[in-house]
Each structure stands twice: as structure tokens, then as C-alpha cells.
Design a protein that fits this description.
The protein has 79 residues and is an all-beta fold. The chain has strands at residues 10-13, 27-32, 38-41, 44-47, 62-67, 74-75.
Amino acid sequence: MDEEGPDGMHVAYVRAEDGDSLKNGQTNIRLLGERETFELTDGILTTRKKLDREQTSQYKLEIEACDNARKPKYVQPYL
């Protein structure tokens, strides 16, 4: 990523899939933490402000994905 990039710069595309059918197969994804710096909307991770490597050399982003089952299953990978 270019630290001189503009606000709203695309960083990654995030997708979660579930093998169930209908509503149970639908997934929801959200960003946990670092929300002042990054935004996750419709699976597109973007910056909310300019990044400064001298100030923060790396970010560890935690994403949560869950399905829409009656008893939802969650996964929380890091990016």
C-alpha cells in the first residue's frame, strides 16, 4: 500500500462463503477494531485517513464473519 495514497484507498476485498442454502447461507462481515483508520463496506476494505508508516509501521486487522443461521457460526481471521 502507498502511504501517500488518498483517503478511501482500496486495501483489500473480503468475502465469506457459507455452503448452507437460503437465509442460513448468507454471511455478514465486519471489521473489529482499527475503525478509525479503516472501513469495511460491502466487502471492500478502504482507508479512512492517510497512512503514516513512521507513526504506525503495520496494522493487524481482525475481521468477523458469521452466517444467518438460528445459531450463527462465527470466524475471526486476521488480515
